[in-house]
Amino acid sequence: MTTPATPKANQANEPHETPWSLWEVFVRSSRGLSHVHAGSLHAPDAAMALRNARDLYTRRNEGVSIWVVPADAISSSDPDSKGSFFESPQGKDYRHATYYTKSEGVKHL
Amino acid sequence: MTTPANEQKTNNPDFAIEGHGDISVGVKGAGASGDGSASATRITPGNALRPEDIALEVRKGQVKPTNDVAEYALRIGDDGLILAQRLGHWISRAPELEEDVALGNIALDQLGHARSFLTYAGAAWDKSEDDLAYFRREHEFRSAHLFEQPNGDFAVTIARQFIVSYYQFELYKRLTGSSDKTIAAIAAKALKEVDYHRDHSAQWVLRLAGGTEESRRRIVQAFKLVWPYVEELFEDDELTARLAESGAGVQPSSLRADFDQLTGEILSEAGLDAASGGELNLERIPQSLGGGRQGKHSEHLGYLLAEMQVLAREHPGASW
After folding, report:
1. Cα–Cα dist B276/B143, whole Å
2. From the list A16, A56, A60, which residue is nearest B95 (CB)?
3. Could A13 and B212 be called an inter-chain contact, meaning their C-beta atoms sit closer than 8 Å?
4. How confident is the model at residue A31 (pLDDT cuts 50, 70, 90)?
5. Which of A28, A84, B141, B241 could crosslink A65 through cysteines, CB 3.0-4.6 Å?
6. Nearest Cα to Cα of residue B83 among B61, B102, B103
């Protein structure tokens, strides 16, 4: 707990000067088919991220499988371009199966 | 709030008496279809042996330990109780919030084991877990010295955790085959949790040893501080001999070979032990006198108990 005489020279060796990186956590519940985003956490590496995820997000029996992904590995869509990204499908009812009339004589549809 | 299983239990007048017994359950029936939009953190309590279940069996007269088994359960329960109190001190003080939660989880696991063992032990003397935890004096505690050792820095806590979890794993693994059904059931529940405690401490031993010069210096120093308390964990006495004979317990010395092998593997992977060129020569670290199982404790336990027991003693019978 002693203060280093030359703090500047020592900085490179101090691990706690580097914050742990951010990880996104995905949990699959016992009956769920896919992993669902549960939240994020800090961890020094992937192995510890998995363990921290187990402690933080499966405390109440929520999951049977966990994925952790470095947060900076995720590319996300731009919230400002919602319109061009997500509104285009609106009104395009021909993209839905119900738009089409069932052909006569086709069974099991 | 209620599921069919819970309704059944709360209908039983015996059940609701114990504090903390009622577990609230999340969305009823949700997720049965496995829909992808369901919460990733849905709550289901699951089924496991709880201290309340043991207390209920005790009240109904379904289980009662022999005096030897009760003494034995007291030792194991005290180990967990004292360690839980120590670990709880890390809440809000760990290096990172995530580690705070990890140590808190381990503390609560240990407290859970302690509650089960103490509830069962108390059945022999008509005492509750709280009577045993809060109203015994220092010389009546049967925990080994390792568990009451101060937290020190994070490395000391990890070194203590490393020894404890490898010891407890070997102990509980064997106790799952105990001729005493309740001891066997508590051990089976605890074993899975302690298995994770092993992993947690081993991961940290490897990282501290292989991290920076400073982290390595600290974990080496930490092992030198806590290793003197290892021998006591594996000491046999008349009680353990009788229990081993009856099949209800084990001789602590019989756990030592597996403990040495498994801890040795991690210490060697971390490059800490002398055989792999490390700074730790464990065989040359002198061992403490021990005596915890006979109620002879180090100077640390009294302070710990004072803090742990003050509320219950100031306000006897208080509940929350």
Report:
1. 33
2. A16
3. yes
4. confident
5. A28
6. B103
| Neighboring chain B residues of A7 at a CB cutoff of 8 Å | none
Cite the beta strand spans of chain B per DSSP E: none
Pick B69 or A105 by higher pLDDT.
Answer: B69
pLDDT single digits (tens) A44-93 = 999 999 999 999 998 888 888 999 999 999 998 888 888 888 888 888 88
Task: Report the residue from B32, B98, B215 with minimal CB separation from A52.
Answer: B98
Chain B stretch 173-212, residues whose beta carbon is closer than 8 A to a beta carbon of chain A:
196, 199-200, 203, 207, 211-212
Neighbours of B290 (CB within 10 A): 18
For chain A, helix (H) and strand (E) counts, in that order, are 3, 3
Q: Which of B133, B97, B91, B95 is nearest to B114 (CA)?
A: B133
Domain range summary for chain A, segments of one domain joined by + = 21-89
Write down the CATH superfamily of domain A21-89: Phenylacetic acid degradation B (3.10.20.520)
Share of chain B above pLDDT 70, in %: 86
Contact at CB, A13 and B211, closer than 8 angstroms: no
- Report the pLDDT averaged over residues B68-83: 98
Expressed in angstroms, the distance from the first to the final Cα of chain A is 74
B140-174 per-position pLDDT tens digit: 999 999 999 999 999 999 999 999 999 999 999 99
DSSP string, B142-207: ---HHHHS---SHHHHHHHHHHHHHHHHHHHHHHTT-SSHHHHHHHHHHHHHHHHHHHHHHHHHHH
Chain A residues in contact with B102 by the CB 8 A cut-off are 51-52, 55
First to last CA, chain B: 20
Q: What token pair was written down for B64?
A: 């009662």
pTM: 0.82
State how far the alpha carbon of B271 is from the alpha carbons of A53, B206, B261, B278, in Å: 28, 9, 15, 5
Nearest-10 crossing angle of helices B213-226, B181-210: 140
A51/B44 CB distance under 8 A: no
Q: Nearest CA to CA, how far is A91 from chain B (Å)?
A: 24
- Over residues B190-229, the pLDDT tens digits come to 999 999 999 999 999 999 999 999 999 999 999 999 999 9
Phi-psi region of B291 (alpha: psi -120 to 50; beta: other; left: phi over 0): left
